[in-house]
């Protein structure tokens, strides 16, 4: 493998003029080619433990029967002497093992930061991390091949929000907890999608796209929940302490470990995260027709979702999200994804959010008691949005 797009305009613009330059400046690093050579093999590596479990369950048994087996071992500890298929024992023994490097205090600091970010976090996840991710053409291919467009963006957003909210709560990730069980289901969903893509399509371009849902793509995706997430919040005026930054990386390192990503490759700090992201983007083509279709589906989700009763409310919400897209993402990415630029009145929205954040932080960030109150307020805001999505998402199909 080579960094095939390193000399292309879209790559240079991102890293020399756009959000990539901001990341390099923030990390204060000069990426070294040794990092590319270290990570490149991961483009053809996958979660073999998860794949073997799916082969023994969801690909052999009826859905309800397979789900009952996974639920049993997700809810209760498994032992070496368990009367269960070897693949299931290997998976759950790996997930139950608490790694020596885990610092639970740091994980909880990262979780509290996610909660205290409140609705800012949800704006960034949707309008910066998710929408911006669509411009990496190869990363989006599994969504196209699993027909995610047909299933609709409402369901996809609900699933992402449900995952993120549950895994970013304080003390949430103990073995057999609700969040742990959700991680198990997500890990096996990735394996199921990968195996089905390989089984059903002859059009998968292994040379350019790597393995479906490969380990390097997974690292880049979860870098979106840590590095890119913080970059977006900083754009909205959210202050981040060194302790919170370290905690957020540690939180997502552990979540990534539980999802089957090799822990040795998961970043501990922004320098490591920016460096691997820099080289990962060098093998990602710019957004294409599929990317634009995914972006359109995400925009139209505002109009399709029934959380708001009236069409004018939904239209206004779409304009607010578009204003965030244009504030957060590079101009050429908005243009490539065909995101309409809203009117000037809506373009004021990000400035209003920034002003509100500055006022809130003056009130709440100066002492621990008020900080904890902000955590509680933010968590309640996030859970309210999730509850609305769960209530208004179609329930007529499963993974």
UniProtKB/TrEMBL annotation:
Residues 151-342 form the ER-bound oxygenase mpaB/mpaB'/Rubber oxygenase catalytic domain. InterPro entries: Lcp-like, MPAB/Lcp_cat_dom. Coiled coil: none annotated. GO terms for molecular function: oxidoreductase activity. It comes from the Bacteria. This is DUF2236 domain-containing protein. It comes from Kaistella carnis.
